[in-house]
């Protein structure tokens, strides 16, 4: 299934006049406020978000899985799905693979396919939260943190293998998310678990090529419910520092206890030059992995404010690896990802509209009311015509979701792949 450019343009034609009208209105208003519209469009066009291979099928819950129809069953088909997203949005130009789910059969062919779609290979993810069918040992009692040296060695070796696979594809980073932890007090010694983890991560870091980065993800709970070895940003930060300059903390929006001030964590990590990766999703309670911006759009905007600010101010922080980390069992996964991509760009655009100069002035005067006015003025701006303009200028769709539906993409995928296909993933 391919999005034909001529059909896309046909769809665009029906909506282009409305877009031009809406765009001129916002652009005129913002220009009067001193916004550089061309610069803003350029930044939107440059912003590429990796799609995780596991988000292309319907995700499971702890209680079961309702598959979605026409899911991709091979890495090739997953890349094709991302190709669909990228053609429509022009902002999904990367894929993040999860090994062993996505081991390529033919490296040259898969690279060629990705290239054809304009997709690069972003961070590769390792998996030590499941036992593989041919495994000699089990991760039941932990992986990189295990008390058993041989289990730790197996987990380190797996991560090294993932790096080698990523290397062949042109990836430049490894993301480690550890499920290691305990369900009951007294189950394991905290200090030994942490020391073992540090030691294992250092070994993996040592195996990475010199131009690679290591991203260390944290999460307070789940799958373990009493303790998690890398439970918070402080632990991740500490481990990253222990590994070296090219090790960073990765913030996943869903990996915080309710009401955590994520924007402040972002600011602190960027100040220290240690924020390396970012996983977008939304949640009400925990690691819900819901559509970006569907529950707390204002929080996302405040987080983006710190990200934009940090990208400007903290040159000590590297360029970030952006990824959507979501997975559903209800929506069409591609429609969901289109919604997430739009929400990300929307928040990014709004954050770029914040009048930072006036904000600092109001802050220095202690004018709290004005500070809030400045933030909310940006947040309340309807930036959707700017996003549409940015992608249309690159050949994307005026309205990706509308076009996806008008083209009956899912039905075509079902016709090609069959109805009851199941993608590998979470
Ligand atoms: C598990 O919480 C998780 O959602 C992490 O966020 C990882 O990034 C992802 O799975 C893939 O391993
Ligand atoms: Mn994640
Ligand atoms: Mn997660």
UniProtKB/TrEMBL annotation:
PANTHER family: L-RHAMNOSE ISOMERASE (PTHR30268). It comes from Flagellimonas marina. The keyword Secreted does not apply. This is Sugar isomerase. Signal peptide: none annotated. GO terms for molecular function: isomerase activity. The keyword Calcium does not apply. Keywords: Isomerase, Manganese, Metal-binding. InterPro entries: L-rhamnose_isomerase, Xyl_isomerase-like_sf.
